[in-house]
Amino acid sequence: MQRLRKLPEIKTVKPNIDVFKSVKRQLLEWVAMRASKDGNVKIKTILAIPYNPYEPEPYERWTLQGLFDLEHEVMVGEEFWDFLGGKGTYEDLLNVFEEAGLELYDEIDEKMRSIKNKN
């Protein structure tokens, strides 16, 4: 049975190099621990970034370069969500967020005004 293990939380889609180094180190440690029990085990690590802030350009964060194989170890936005939920999942998520935003627009606007007025 496979077990998922959580990495230290990355709080932004544009982390600094020290965060990427920490994540890479943790992944390598987990791979080494697992492979030490069975040298023939197949292990795939993936760094998932939930959205691409550079859209429509590709995600090319300089702090990621050289640490990860961008083609095989990193999933960004649509690729990640469709990997989890199947083809079309990313588009479905965008539609849900758009619908929720439209439905809750007045409530969100009112809350933002009250926060602005407190400052």
UniProtKB/TrEMBL annotation:
It catalyses: Endonucleolytic cleavage of DNA to give specific double-stranded fragments with terminal 5'-phosphates. Keywords: Endonuclease, Hydrolase, Nuclease, Restriction system. GO terms for molecular function: DNA binding; type II site-specific deoxyribonuclease activity. Its EC number is 3.1.21.4. GO terms for biological process: DNA restriction-modification system. This is type II site-specific deoxyribonuclease. It comes from candidate division CPR3 bacterium 4484_211.
